[in-house]
Amino acid sequence: MHEVGSARYSPSQVEVWAPAVPSEEAYLQRANDGRVFLVAVNEHDRPIAYGDLTPVGHIEYLYCEPEATRTGIVKALYLQLEQAAKQRNISLLSTNASELARSFFKKRGFLVVQRRDFVLKGVLIHNYRMEKRLGS
């Protein structure tokens, strides 16, 4: 977010959205709370992208390192998350997409439900509530 977020957000917006790298404990806790949690690694076994799907069909995270952008890794993770949703009989996917992610999700059939404007740590910022109905 710090490197690519500046393309669509101000420095203060980037800072409040992604103030620091979350701890490994925080990731492990999320990965073990019932959600699908996928991690892509490079040839050196270093994580370069991750995504998740909550039990109710919400994609909370879908991120990659800057060097992994436009490589197909995020698309592959997304397709795995969608497949996992179908296997779990989840009929509606949702996400709160940033300006950067909105076009990615739109290309995969998500529709914007609402622009969400909010204040985070005193800074006005926005994202988009998006949804996609899954076929049987």
How are the strands of the largest sheet arranged? 3-5-7-6
> What structural class should be given to the helix and strand makeup?
alpha+beta
Mean pLDDT: 86
- The fraction of residues assigned to DSSP E strands is 25-35%
By DSSP, the count of extended strands is 7
What brief labels describe this structure?
4 helices; 136 residues; single chain; 29% helix; 33% strand; alpha+beta; four-stranded mixed β-sheet; globular
What does this structure look like?
- The protein has about 140 residues and is of the alpha+beta class.
- The protein is built from four helices and seven strands; from the N terminus they run H-H-E-E-E-E-H-E-H-E-E.
- The strands form two sheets. A four-stranded mixed sheet has the order 3-5-7-6.
- The longest helix has 15 residues.
- Strand 6 and strand 7 form a beta hairpin.
Summarize the structure.
This protein is α+β, with helices and mostly antiparallel strands.
Helices and strands in order, then pairings?
Blueprint: H1 11-17, H2 24-31, E1 36-41, E2 47-53, E3 58-59, E4 62-64, H3 73-87, E5 92-97, H4 99-107, E6 111-120, E7 123-133
Parallel strand pairs: 3-5
Antiparallel strand pairs: 1-2, 2-4, 5-7, 6-7
